Amino acid sequence: MKQLYFLIFTLSSFIWCSCPDGWTSYKTVCILPRNDQVTWSTAQAICPNEHNQGYMVNEEDAEKHEFVSQLARDNFPIASNYHIGLSYARNSWYWQRPAGQQAIQVNSTFWNPFYPIVSSTLTAVWNSMEGNTTEYGWQNIDKTKSKAYYFCEIVDTKNIF
């Protein structure tokens, strides 16, 4: 009985993701690097069309922030900024979520020094990369003017707990 319990506990500790081709698995989500440079608003419109229930990538904790930043270094040219699904609304910063789900207020922050800048037009965010180093952080930008690479994200509905 002890061995059966251990087997069940061990299997329940693993999460198996089945991401579509070209997507990278991260815990219970799949992330797709997009190699076209577009505005934040355009990226926001593309991700739901990339895959059902798609949205721009969230970096809601330090571990995921590091993971996505490494994906950017692996997939984009050196010193490339990339858009993330963080925007300003109702006097706070919120993460995008799949259609029909409520946006999540930001808890962790990885702002560059002197950011965010208080402005009515700088309401979207990108992660600013400085070369192929670990120097990077968030900067708020104009969502209709600043072009960059981006990531789409989906929740993996086929994962097994």
TrEMBL record:
<dbReference type="InterPro" id="IPR001304">
    <property type="entry name" value="C-type_lectin-like"/>
</dbReference>
<dbReference type="InterPro" id="IPR016186">
    <property type="entry name" value="C-type_lectin-like/link_sf"/>
</dbReference>
<protein>
    <recommendedName>
        <fullName>C-type lectin domain-containing protein</fullName>
    </recommendedName>
</protein>
<feature type="domain" description="C-type lectin">
    <location>
        <begin position="26"/>
        <end position="128"/>
    </location>
</feature>
<dbReference type="GO" id="GO:0045087">
    <property type="term" value="P:innate immune response"/>
</dbReference>
<dbReference type="Pfam" id="PF00059">
    <property type="entry name" value="Lectin_C"/>
</dbReference>
<feature type="signal peptide">
    <location>
        <begin position="1"/>
        <end position="20"/>
    </location>
</feature>
<keyword id="KW-0732">Signal</keyword>
<dbReference type="InterPro" id="IPR016187">
    <property type="entry name" value="CTDL_fold"/>
</dbReference>
